[in-house]
Amino acid sequence: MDTVSSPxxxxxxxxxxxxxxxxxYELARQFCTHGFDVIAIAExxxxxxxxxxxxxNGATVTPIQADLRNYDDVERVYQALSGTGRPLDxxxxxxxxxxxxxxxxxxxxxxxxxxxxxxxxxxxxxxxxLADMAGRGAGRALFTASIASTMPGPYYATYAASKSFVLSFxxxxxxxxxxxxxxxxxxxxxxxxxxxxxxxxxxxxxVAESKKDDPATVAAEGYEALMKGDDKVIAGSxxxxxxxxxxxxxxETAKAAMHARMTEPHPHG
Length: 269
Description:
By secondary structure, the protein is of the alpha/beta class. The chain contains ten helices and seven strands.
């Protein structure tokens, strides 16, 4: 495996949110494998075990347990990143959650919590980290969006909308930073074999029961795109790219109906 080094010498440093499992864990593993030290951030205490299992190839993996839905926890994470005394060479803003069901029936606090994590914390931490990166003229940021970002998402409406925000935000900030030495890349996975569907309450849907991509593959493609400085990557199965391409010519109503067939719960599920 090729490794990278920090412009300042020594091992480069990366941070990954949502790093205790799934795509976030695999992104942290990609950084470790390629010569980075990693700060692994997640809400649950599984991040400690994840950090221990990731320590390899001489990598130092530091866990931070934080609920990024809370402003003060995001600030605490940023202070921890700043407190290393090392430049942050890369960050993967990956933490996210889904809420399943008809919007008029889901819990308000569940939907507001999703927005706080998927949208607000992403903007908050990006504001802090990207300003530092731009100030020193170097850095890479990977934002985990989704192919769901390209179409309305009935039965998990706030999730799909949050990912549309993340994709649009990443593309816009990328343009603003294009002459600064900082790159921004959007990772767009399709259905992936993680805890997402169980946590979102989507187990009785076609998408949850269909063949899903390996999070290790998705993370590897995301890492490669990040290091190349690509604007975005549709990761995983070729059907994900096909779905995005088809979506470019379909009206929003048709895309919503197509998406709903995958995300509507079974009547007796």
